[in-house]
Give the backbone structure.
Amino acid sequence: MARLAQTADLTDIQQEILSTVRSFVDKEIIPHAQALEHADEYPTEIVDGLKELGIFGLMIPEEYGGLGESLLTYALVVEEIARGWMSVSGVINTHFIVAYMLRQHGTPEQKEHFLPRMATGEVRGAFSMSEPGLGSDVAGIRTKAVPDGDSYVIDGQKMWLTNGGSSTLVATLVRTDLGADKAYQNLTTFLVEKPAGFGTVAPGLTIPGKIDKMGYKGVDTTELVFDGYRIGADMILGGTPGRGFAQMMDGVEVGRVNVAARACGISIRAFELAVEYAQQRETFGKPIVQHQAIAFQLAEMATKVEAAHLMMVNAARLKDAGQRNDVEAGMAKLIASEYCAEVTTQSFRIHGGYGYSKEYEIERLMREAPFLLIGEGTSEIQKTIISRGLLKEYGLER
Ligand SMILES: Cc1cc2nc3c(=O)[nH]c(=O)nc-3n(C[C@H](O)[C@H](O)[C@H](O)COP(=O)(O)OP(=O)(O)OC[C@H]3O[C@@H](n4cnc5c(N)ncnc54)[C@H](O)[C@@H]3O)c2cc1C
């Protein structure tokens, strides 16, 4: 058999990009990930290396200075990076979602203004839907923008911004009361430009500080407080208010493929660590891999890695073909994140007591995997999306 998680029918360019990223991950990420993560230190040198490789512009069209690659290429790159350290994939993911939303929904002026600088990594994107009182229930957003002349004034609090401090452009979903019947039709995405950093970074705009997390360290996750923040109407994504919910859901749909890819990367690494350890550790006179109980665990883990990878690739290819992939992306995200939690736990158990030591990489993966059950929509939300999709296809006509 071949190594796990191979992808059929890649172009020469895709293979070249992946092999470059894989060698960057092996040389520049894996050797430093444990120390940086334990110190909760931002991976500045790694991020600079990714900028040089052009990763920040991977999916940005060539006319704006990007590489114009597909969602599949992006997802496979993310899988490689998360195999090295999930936090690094977090640095690029919100940037990628915002660039994608601009590409799909931005006005020509907005694309011209942001995309070339996003392609180089000079402008770095974050996206903000969640608030202290809501995450899954996006339509309930309370942060409000009120028109005032040819600008808007925003008040409210946002929560859980990945790259909240290090980004310079935050696509932010807020309420603009337009009188529409459905709550989600009253939501608008604003392109909030700000300097990187913490504290009051602009009049009426505060990034209080980093939220201390269980894992996924190094990358900053923050709140965002608006207090009479004034923004021009030209900073509404696409120029027309009331379209924010659909724009964000489009972004999250590609984000889900990315989270599935991340889960695949972590699972691959957890498997690699387990299969190596199982051949080195001896009990009762033989390597533990020769105990059938351990060999069968490895067989199960490898099968989960393979299944999740195939579903992730399928969801990415559908989107690249211009088809709706909400159900497939939901399925890929669901299975990849659930399998990732299982595979990391299996790898942890194969490591015995050493799995609990901070010297071994698996303890970090054990703290990273749970986030994937939550981010870009929890497993329950994925099941809601999948089951709704199923009834569209299989519903009985009455
Ligand atoms: C580290 C980290 C980074 C994040 N980064 C970002 C970011 O960059 N931008 C951003 O906008 N958000 C971000 N988030 C927020 C994330 O998207 C939300 O945490 C997630 O959507 C879940 O929302 P919640 O935490 O409010 O949970 P809730 O919505 O309160 O859900 C709580 C529980 O109830 C379940 N539940 C909720 N509704 C239903 C239902 N209808 N049926 C069945 N079960 C249900 C959920 O599955 C969950 O188990 C981040 C979160 C974390 C932890």
Notes: The CA atoms of residues 129 and 135 lie 7 Å apart. DSSP finds ten helices and ten strands in the chain.
